[in-house]
Input
Amino acid sequence: MILSAAELLRLPPGEPDIDLHAGLLRYLLLALALLWVLAALQGRRAAFLLAGVVFVLVASGFWIAALGRPYGLFVDPEITRREANMSVAVAGAPPGESFLVDVPVARDGWVSLAPSLRPRAWLLIVPTLVPLLVLPVLGVLVYLLWPRRDEALVATALCLLFSTGDLDAARGVGFVPGLWTHPGSALFLLLTVAVVLALGRLPVPEVVATALGAATTAAWIVVRAPFEGLDLADAALLLTLDQVPWCLLAAWAWPRGAAPAARAMIIGGAALVVLSAGPVGVDAWGSHAFYRFGLLLASAGPVTILASRAGEWLRRRPAFARFGPPGIGTALLVLAAAPICFLAWWTPTRSDRLMNESREPLTVRLRNAMAWVRKETPATAVFIASPDYAPYVAVLGGRRVLRAPALAIADDDIRRYRAEDKLLRGRPGKLGALYGLTHVFIGPGDFLAFDIASPEDLEKRGRFRLLHRDASDLRVYEILRPE
Output
């Protein structure tokens, strides 16, 4: 199983080194920003779009490449549960069953999609890689679907450069930082934005297009919030002061013919942000994203006007005489904004605990042991493993486990504990057969509460047959059935 983007790129272990290469990243982004400026000056729309997309990909991709494992894996219980359910579903667990044997799996789009993902070796890293594409695709959608073509380049640049602000990131709803915790719902948000943009192009009265777009954003209500929502004070600040200057520019543009898609996202997003502060449980990250992108798109009109006027003034200079005012103005926007935008200076290791803890790669011995489990044990196998190793058996080994208290506790956990206790003490009774237990994964120091001083003690307690042992004394035993 591939567990990091660095493995996909075949980078040497430890590369990229954040301490060494983060400074180089800033210089690379500055160089890309200058190429973006050059494309704007020359009026080459395709090159402008490509330069913006590459800027965003590099700014986000560096940090994804620095992860030693999928984001949050074995650090955050919710993320690890999702990966465990995906892994056992692909490995051949009974349909509808979670990584805990005989426990139904919670509804999750990633788990449903997992058996269809190819190549299989990429299974665990895909939710970490998908967010890398969301903002670039959103920028392309804005460029292609924005109805006012004279504003398309500015609208695209605003969405790519200002999708995230420092204040909303500090409140935990920044668009780019939140993509890692919303790998599935981010795709739903992307689809919703595409539909709203398309509705804004319909040949209907603007009020109708706005109403249809706002109603479309209401679909976000069905998205379950993965973390605690906002309070009313944060929601009020997100809707007002945190959005300066975009809320002021949007307010100026609103009575002067702001595009229906922008109005729809502002109205729908603002309503969703208010709901996210209540007991409804609406996800605040996506709610804020709709609102912010609505403000940015509404600001495209006045920013285009200001940029064009600056371009007309600069065109009087001989050095800029051969460039058009719109191109000069757009180039000025990129030149002023790209070097100081959130993405250019984003350092998630300082602000995101999950990202920082996900930098540590998993040990080779553990990966090899779990690769053996995945390859050499039946897909229907059910393991007993200690709380330390049960998550690894489920995620990396792709096998269901009896108990994994670090991830989830079943309703019948007391009975499961009794089954584990009896089996490990050599008195399996009927409970072991009830759960279909077939194997035990054990390492040094495991199951001390059951008076097992070392892994080999297990062989003295009943019908256990050693199948695998590595140099660090990680072992897999088969549970033999009575004849």
User: Anything to note?
Assistant: The two ends are 37 Å apart (CA to CA). The longest helix spans residues 284-315. The mean pLDDT is 92. Residues 39 and 48 are 5 Å apart (CA to CA).
